[in-house]
Design goal:
Shape: elongated
Radius of gyration: 16 Å
Order of helices and strands: HHHHHHH
Number of domains: 1
Strand content: under 5%
Structural class: mainly alpha
Number of helices: 7
Oligomer: single chain
Length: about 150
Amino acid sequence: MTAEPAVFAAVFAALYAAHELGDHWVQTHHQALTKGRLDTTGRLACLRHVASLTAVKVAALLLVALVCGIVFPFGGALVALALGVDAVSHYWADRRHTLAALADRIGKGDFVRLGDGFAAPAGTGAYALDQSWHIAWLLVTSLLASLGTA
């Protein structure tokens, strides 16, 4: 099973734009500050963030599919699966301690701790690793969602 390159490109572009919107504009201040806590409050904040982010991604994919005339095979089941994979990967990384532990394990511990998260949260090593993780999973998500379109 293969993917139509133009469909893959449109899906990736839609998911990337939706990621930027959902991760930075739609996410609430409370979610951003709380989602990494190691308690139920943190888990629920992260879950709410991922749910709203996924809703933005669904809306973006629907818009792109409508405007570009994309018909996803299998009734969109692969798209739903792909968005589920993306949501799980996003939740995992946004719990923060998980990504930090991975960074430590692969020798990126010093990088993940660069910068002051309160003074410049978007200028830290943790933010750079977080965003690169999410974008890499958008690639996987886009490929999976586009399967069967060629």
